[in-house]
Structure formats: structure tokens, C-alpha cells
Amino acid sequence: MRNLFTKLLGDKGERYAARYLKKQGFRIVARNHKNQFGEIDLIATDGNQVVFVEVKTRKSDKFGAPVEAVNAAKQRKLTQLAMAYLKKNKLLDRSARFDIVGIIWPEDAKKPTDVRHYRNAFDAVD
After folding, report:
1. To 10 degrees, the CA torsion angle through 96, 86, 36, 102?
2. pLDDT band for position 2 (50/70/90)?
3. Looking at the 3D structure of the chain, how many domains does it have?
4. Nearest-5° angle of CA 93, CA 95, CA 97?
5. pTM for this one?
6. Handedness of CA 4, 61, 40, 32 (dihedral sign)
7. CB 98 within 8 A of CB 120
């Protein structure tokens, strides 16, 4: 189980990422969407495309870039989550993609020092 600080940092990063994406023209459809496979941080639309967004927030890049935390196992899980969402909402005919927003937000900083948005960061994985 994540400790409280890690959860608070993650929540803060997700809120920031949602605002960031809105400024880029995305429409946020859901935050922290849960289904039988787990949880998706953000679901958005970019034009007609459904975008599943994984947000990774870190205090520093000391242990690697935030995007590196989205490994093959996480990609498989996100693919399952996305497919279940698309089926349930009858959106299988819509184009969809996976984006990652990586955020570096030092402990004492009022705002992030680095925000990177990776569009179409990975393909759906079996």
C-alpha cells in the first residue's frame, strides 16, 4: 500500500495533469475511473479520440523518469481497463490511444518543475 505522502503527491499530480490537458484542448471525461481490472487515472477526449491517460508524479528523477514506471505489466493492465471501458460505454468503434503525463514535483515546490506529455505513448498490449 502506498504511503500517505505518495498518495497525496499522486492526487496532486493528477489534478495538475487534468488542468494541463484541458489547456491543450482535451475534455476530461473521468478521473480515477475504476472497474474490475483496477483504476485509470484520467479518461479524456482529444477531438473524436478517446484517450486513456496514466499520470506518474515523482519528487525527482533520481530513480528515473516518471514515464519509466509504466512498464509492460502496467501497459497490459491499462489495456484491460481501457477495453472494459470501451465495451461498457459502447465505444469500440471509436479511435483510442494511451498517453502518459510524467510530472516532477519537488516536495517543497508550489508547482511542478517538469511536465512531459507523451501522446500515444504505447500500443494496446495483450
Report:
1. 20
2. low
3. 1
4. 135
5. 0.93
6. positive
7. yes
